Amino acid sequence: MSGSELAARVREALTVDAEAFQERAEAEAEELIEEVYDGTFDNSQAIIGLEQELYAVDDRTDALRRVPRQLLDRIGFEKELGLHNAEIQTSPVPLSRYGLEAQEAELQAHVDAAETAVGRENIQLVADGMWTVPPNGETATDYLCDSIEADGIRIATNMSDAVRYHTMANTDYPSGLRIDAPHVTLEADTVMPESLITSIQPHYQVPHAPDLPEHFTYALRVAGPLAALGANSPFFPPEMYDDVPAGQILADAWMENRITVFEDVLNPQTGDGDPKVCFPPDFDTVEDAIQDIAGDRTIVPMDVPDGQRFDDRFRHLRHKHGSYWRWVRPVFDGASRSAANARIEFRPLAAQPTIRDAVAFQALFAGLMESLPRREHPVRNLDWQTAKANFYAAVCDGLQAEFTWLTADASETGAVDEIYGEIFEYARDGLELRGLSTEEARRYIRPLRERVDRRTTPARWKHELVERQVERGVPLTEAIWGMQARYVEKQTETLVEGTFADWLEG
């Protein structure tokens, strides 16, 4: 699509009547609530799914690469925000031994085939929380901030041609369009800086839709510990750092910068409006959850054409949901009445070093969603503000964060081994409730238990590698890029079949 064609479509989107759009969304929300209470969104069992994002690099230099759109179509991956991004979603399956095996095998099959195909173009796909090496001959800042004005419309040069992405920079919604992290400040004209970050997103469909708030409450209580366990983005591209000593950058580094990038780019700056990317509230009822989506401010209202899907009855609400950016969020959709589902998308997790690590998080989260409500674990009574504090402590310090947890006997603890010991045991219990044997359940959990036992997440592995090099006198830029080369090298050997724990051997 040419720049002028894209600009014309953006301009057309900007003419949509926002008030009429909101009225339709609110009416659809009421209809959706009726369907939920009528049982339309119930399932006979728990269903799981997973979104996996990757980015492309040059297989000789590790520099970021743009993926030709035709190539992306051929390998069966979806477009994401940046031209360097790719995404795949697994097919929803029952939570069971066979379902988890199917999730792992599907990802392995698609990623392995994609790696072969892109390899012919000297491209490698990388699963990582944040890229640090810009395209050859470009700076990270230029790549993220480059834009043009076409017929009065601001267009990001390196962004996919999805109209809604470009419309965000041309509305009156006061997105921050900036990054403000320790020793990093970036100002942009579009949402393109969000393309720094890459994630995985486990999905869990609740069997009985009205029970979603109870599961959601538990999901918020485990969000901090799980985000810490998956931390994988401690460094920005090195040229983005201020001119301060490397030791200071290392001392002040956050373990999960992916969180702050998403929040800074898309949220209004302080005082300009309510944040859209945030730790969400608890919901007392499923009706509260639906109405929270309906009441969320829409950045890009659009004329959404009717279609043949069942959930096209709620198409304006579904469109609103596309910018309902909560770190844990409820979803109500389905291509057909029989496929209609209520699910929880767990969004705080950075992309992981291997497929097995990603599926381990999927199994861990799903197991917790099965066991914690059924066993009525007291952690649901952990104060919401404390759960939020746990989450942002994880962002800063990873496994070294100070957490507060309520144990099975309702006593308060901050001991890492006790907290994760319970998390792993209840996840194992939940998987066994879905028919897995004890050993099968432990197989999925083991790679994550290793992280706790060694107090080493991917972020900590990166940080320690860079720190050792800086202590030997290596400039920070070379140390970060050297770490990235080592990460890509290790992943080449383990992405499809190994685990991050394999990186820690020897």
CATH class: Alpha Beta
Give the CA-CA distance, first to last residue.
Answer: 51 Å
What does the overall shape look like? globular
Strand/helix succession: HHEHEEHEHEEHEEEHHHHHEEHHEEHHHH
Number of helix segments? 17
| Helix-and-strand structural type | alpha+beta
Radius of gyration, whole Å: 22 Å
Largest sheet: 7 strands, antiparallel
Which stretches are poorly predicted, pLDDT < 50 over at least 5 residues?
A: none
- What count of structural domains? 1
Mean of residue pLDDT values: 96
The CATH topology comes to Creatine Kinase, Chain A, domain 2
- Annotated CATH architecture: 2-Layer Sandwich
Could you tell me the number of beta strands?
A: 13
Q: What share of the residues does DSSP label as strand, in percent?
A: 5-15%
Level of helix content?
Answer: 40-55%
